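subagent[fold] <- orchestrator: predict structure for attached chain, return tokens only, no commentary.
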Amino acid sequence: MVGRRTFLFMEDGSVTAANASLSPRTSERPPYLGFGLGLRPQHYQDILDGSPNVDWFEVISENYMVPGGQPLKMLDRIRARYPIVMHGVSLSIASTAPLNMEYLRDLKALAQRAEPVFISDHLCWTGVHGINLHDLLPVPYTQEALDHVVSRVHRVQDYLGQAIALENVSSYVQFSHSEMSEWEFIAELTKRTGCWLVFDVNNVFVSAFNHEFDAHAFIAGVPKERIVQFHLAGHEHNMSHIVDTHDAIVCDEVWDLYRTAVRHFGPVSAIIERDDHIPPLAELVAELDVARKVATEELGQSHVAA
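subagent[fold] -> orchestrator:
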């Protein structure tokens, strides 16, 4: 069978044609890391001065995509002691704008320096016409959008030389012309691209409340073999809707959903995310211990030790 005409993005940003079928990228599943935290500058010194009960750290990629400076120095020192994962917010994988090759070059350079366990971003778009809206905007769950995102994921993975992981986002509006559920879209995306999935438990909870779907249907609908990370975070509940704020402790309902996810997916690396009202490191470590305790109760100690 003759493969479809595809395009490869080269190191220098040029594009070359190749006759190859768009088959899913095959790569080894990232290892189980245990329980981690989002790395924040407020905690650099406490991490370096002590030995907090944290197995690994997740860094916001864009914070370190700079030429030199204190952030990179701190990243170098912390990655020498802990595994890290790079987590971006600007890939805009679902945008209709051309892929930002300058961004991808900087992302690849950071990955070559930091050697993350894997690279992740969000299943969303973040801007249009060259304007970054600094938000994670939802995707219409249509066949046309799916084909478009599949093509872009292939190109990004080819350029980076590895499978990426994509996270489900929280949302506050839906597209009336969607043809499938979010979890059906995600399941087909990973099947066709070989990408991994970051399962944000809080985002599922937020979107399920806002759009009145069953969060357990989401858990059952995504392929468990592709889940490589759990995210846990706090939100702002406004009674009529929930806003994903990452500025508070994880609430009891999200812990309950996390327990269900652990029972369903098995041992998956997990982190606590906090982006505002950031408390002392010891408070986040104590909250992380809750995640560790829940996983141990559901799976047993031998299955959750990193």
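orchestrator: received. Logging for downstream: The longest strand covers residues 131-137. The chain has one domain: 36-304.
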